[in-house]
Design brief:
Number of domains: 3
CATH class of the largest domain: Alpha Beta
Shape: globular
Largest sheet: 7 strands, parallel
Helix content: 25-40%
Strand order of the largest sheet: 3-4-2-1-5-6-7
């Protein structure tokens, strides 16, 4: 658990008649998973759910067991507050009404960078804590959002259950134990050919899993971001900005490594590993380059590799069966899975009860930039994350700025002003941007303080 004794204190809130009131924006997969567990979490009450498609929000609530009589369509903040006071859940398409209805925490789960930034900024002004599920916004302007939240006296936090927050927790654990972190990251399903995947081809790469995903009505473009490497880059950038771990300058390698080889391979190259330097992030693939499965894969999990700087500690590694490399110098710990929205509750409780974030940007050391999937032509409009034009590649913020590379979060809707070949990273000389004014303002604040 990220914070001690939260369940008991949530029970106390419930018994006092003051459960933590939550506004959820975005009733997609993550939001629905959270709603499923919020129904049985004592002391948490999702008092209002916001979605542009109100019928989808109603359907999501019904699907996970919320009684129909508790679900009420509302329009104003007053209506939402009244429904919540009677133990019900208001459903609306009005974010402002949700923020002003007396909620304690806003969970931003739209997946839309611009919308997420606006929702967070409005929540801070209203004195409402924010748990940011839309990692894309955090990577682009998270440092500025964190500073604005602090100035407003509220919390801005990563979402527990998503891999970035879990990785940050492992890094914090390691450092509190006195270890130097050599590498931290997660597992995924990756092959180099996936970089060229599009929303039309994404499910072709999932085999037997494809039918289940289609039945669940997942968004092909969102899922394509997971497959083509973009989401991995985004999540590792968030971890870098929260922990100070420096990302690889030319992108993730996605080495094919199982849990039994984490400590052996995720160390510097000059010591027999694959890393360019210590203190970095990396994502390991559950697939070998020929498409066969890696033994002991970490597809759904997270990990940290640490360095034992004294022989006594290395001896302890051996004595207690801590997975280590051949030298005994590097040790690995991992969690085999993450429960996504099913375990979001601790982030909400930590913010509302302890005033603490579980993972938050403290610097801006990482950037995600757009690498072209095919030859692009002048006049073409870039469709952004998970689309047909680009996939997101991780780099350092300093390198991206030096090379004039455009952050991925700015590329949706950008118009190409010249032809760009496949495999090139888009720069400011390649595109004409169409960026939301608040995003530009937050971006300037991020770079000024990063």
């Amino acid at each position: 658990m990220p914070c001690a004794d939260l369940a008991r204190r949530l029970l106390a809130r419930q018994n006092s008649g003051k459960p933590v009131r939550i506004g959820l924006v975005g009733a997609g997969k993550f939001g629905t998973m959270f709603l499923a567990q919020a129904r049985t979490t004592v002391g948490l009450h999702p008092s209002v759910v916001v979605d542009l498609d109100r019928s989808r929000a109603v359907a999501s609530l019904a699907r996970v067991g919320w009684p129909a009589e508790q679900i009420v369509t509302v329009t104003t903040a007053g209506e939402a507050a009244d429904v919540a006071s009677r133990g019900g859940i208001g459903v609306t398409d009005n974010v402002a009404a949700a923020i002003d209805s007396g909620i304690d925490v806003l969970v931003e789960s739209t997946g839309n960078v611009s919308a997420a930034a606006h929702h967070a900024a409005a929540a801070f002004e209203a004195g409402v804590h924010v748990v940011m599920v839309t990692v894309e916004a955090d990577v682009l302007v998270g440092l500025a959002l964190a500073r604005r939240a602090a100035a407003a006296g509220v919390v801005y936090s990563m979402a527990y259950g998503d891999q970035p927050a879990l990785i940050c927790e492992m890094v914090d654990w390691a450092r509190c134990c006195g270890f130097s972190v050599t590498a931290a990251g997660k597992g995924t399903r990756h092959l180099p050919v996936f970089h060229e995947s599009t929303p039309e081809t994404v499910f072709d790469h999932y085999g037997e899993e494809a039918e289940s995903l289609k039945r669940d009505a997942v968004n092909p473009r969102m899922f394509n971001s997971f497959l083509d490497g973009t989401k991995s880059s985004i999540e590792m950038a968030a971890v870098s900005n929260a922990t100070g771990l420096v990302p690889p300058e030319f992108g993730l390698q996605f080495p094919s490594i199982g849990t039994d080889r984490l400590a052996e391979m995720l160390k510097p190259k000059n010591e027999g590993g694959v890393l360019e330097h210590r203190g970095t992030v990396e994502v390991v693939s559950c697939l070998k380059r020929d498409g066969t499965a890696v033994d002991n894969d970490l597809r759904w999990g997270v990990y940290v590799v640490v360095e034992a700087e004294h022989e006594y500690v290395r001896e302890c590694f051996r004595q207690y069966g801590i997975p280590s490399d051949a030298s005994g110098r590097y040790g690995a710990a991992w969690r085999p899975n993450h429960w996504i929205g099913l375990e979001l509750g601790p982030s909400i409780a930590a913010a509302a009860i302890d005033g603490k974030a579980i993972g938050v940007a403290g610097q801006h050391v990482a950037e995600v930039v757009g690498c072209t999937k095919s030859d692009l032509s002048a006049g073409q409009v870039v469709d952004g994350e998970g689309g047909h034009c680009v996939w997101g590649r991780l780099t350092t913020s300093a390198a991206a700025q030096q090379r004039g590379e455009v952050p991925l979060g700015f590329l949706e809707g950008a118009r190409l002003i010249r032809d760009v070949p496949r495999g090139a990273v888009l720069t400011s000389a390649d595109v004409e941007l169409d960026v939301d004014r608040l995003l530009l303002e937050l971006r300037a604040e991020t770079l000024a303080s990063g």
